[in-house]
Write a structure and sequence with these properties.
This protein is of the alpha/beta class. The protein folds into 2 domains: 1-131 and 189-264 and 360-425, FAD/NAD(P)-binding domain; 132-187 and 268-358, D-Amino Acid Oxidase, subunit A, domain 2 (D-Amino Acid Oxidase, Chain A, domain 2, 2-Layer Sandwich). 25% of the residues lie in helices and 24% in strands. The chain has helices at 54-65, 100-124, 142-157, 167-173, 195-208, 326-339, 388-401, 417-422; strands spanning 45-50, 70-73, 88-89, 135-139, 163-166, 183-187, 191-192, 212-214, 218-223, 228-233, 238-246, 267-277, 289-294, 297-303, 308-312, 348-358, 365-368, 374-378. Strand 1 (45-50), helix 1 and strand 2 form a beta-alpha-beta unit. It is globular, with a radius of gyration of 21 Å. The two termini are 21 Å apart. Bound molecules: glycine. Residues 1-2, 88, 90, 94, 271, 312-313, 356, 382 line the site of glycine.
Length: 425
Amino acid sequence: MSSVPGTRSAENPPALDAERPPALGARSPRQTGQTGARSAEHPPQDVLVIGGGIIGLVTAWRAAQRGLRVAVVDPQPGGGAAQVAAGMLAAVTELHYGEETLLALNLESARRYPAFAAELAEASGQDIGHRACGTLAVALDADDRAHLRELHALHLRSGLESQWLSGRECRRLEPMLAPGVRGGLRVDGDHQVDPRRLASALVIACERAGVRFRRAWAERLSVAGDRAVGAVLDDGTEAAAEQVVLAGGSLSGRLGGVPPRVLPPVRPVKGQVVRLTVPASHAPFLSRTVRAMVRGSHVYLVPRRSGELVVGATSEEMGWDTTVTAGGVYELLRDAHELVPGITELPLTETRAGLRPCSPDNAPLLGPTDLPGLLLATGHHRNGVLLAPLTGDVMATALTCGVLPEEAGPFTPRRFSSLSQEQPV
Ligand code: GLY
């Protein structure tokens, strides 16, 4: 899972209507009486960030560090997909054909993670669970093995560190693996972080850096004279700002008032996740992230130092549905059990579903749009947690200097300008 900042959490999902998906600022029935006169009782900001998930928060924190006055609009900062995501930093093991440009961005963000984690821990007083544990991707049958061999070849062609291991070597590294494991890839550079800790550390760091939180939904973008100038909130107020960053995760394409030519073409891709607990008596259970393709579907197990074991994730095109289904949980546990039979003994502590914000090319939309004053930081799909350090840096540069740094150039929202005009989401 990647981050879906500013959207409603799976615990408190919006009322779902397949015909009418929620708008970014959809009102709850309780709030419908609050449509009275708008007021602008808050001082104008330099930057208004719409969406307080990991991407919105890291943008706000980095911008505030550069001296900008920043506000974040979100009813529940740090909620949304940050509460669901497993937190793999999987630039190498999640590499896909044709995504070499995205690979460069992912690797650069992974490179920045250790310093980012240390700086954020210092700024917030909270450890974000950055764990340099590495990843083992394994194959269970002949087809999985052929698929993994292809991935290994792609790794080698791309100059990535990735080592082929026999089944026996895999089990030597991770003794809990099923005896049927036929081989695997050892990728020592793919690590993990705890997205819940990351989100809560970012909220604290933002507060300490002077970021203001507006706990409301953004209802519509305010545009004056072909320039974004803030947003109208569902608490009856307006938030004025020199620049607006739309970081609303999978709901980014649904903010009212955004001209169609700059509306981000982002859609939700559902991911269901299961959390188990490894009792002290069973530790060590897994020492690193273990993942596999099981009969064509991906499954991963992410072990935390705390004993939490996150098993994820489904990938479903279901609109804004965040229902946890028996089928989704069954498939995850069935595949994880084939990989690591001992998981059936572990207590099951939580099931959740979240929404990845997916763009047409699976890559993020970063930086200025063709509407002056409006920037995007959305569409991170499977890589929101991984791309947090780099997104914060490039967005802060775009906000202070007006230009997107070179490393983020290919990810300008302008690559979709014609698409947005033809196919508003
Ligand atoms: N990056 C893991 C996921 O999106 O499920």
